[in-house]
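Thread amino acids onto this structure.
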């Protein structure tokens, strides 16, 4: 009977130790997941900024092309009537 009680106490001790290790691993994984979420948030922000920057650059290029077309049109001779 004492042997069973000692075995049970040993099993309880082992389970408590495993439970503590698992708790620490879960905390570490939660911390890692939080870090990954922060990285995803930063990447999302950077992608959005890149899209906005690219959109502004395209708008500027359209304006440059329009200006060049207007300059070119001014150099064309005026059509004569008649």
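Threaded sequence (82 positions):
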């Amino acid at each position: 009977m004492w042997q069973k009680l000692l075995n049970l106490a040993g099993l309880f001790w082992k389970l408590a130790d495993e439970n503590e290790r698992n708790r620490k691993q879960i905390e570490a994984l939660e911390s890692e997941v939080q870090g990954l979420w922060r990285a995803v948030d930063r990447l999302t922000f950077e992608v959005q900024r890149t899209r906005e920057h690219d959109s502004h650059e395209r708008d500027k290029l359209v304006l440059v092309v329009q200006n060049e077309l207007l300059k070119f049109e001014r150099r064309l001779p005026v059509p004569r009537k008649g």
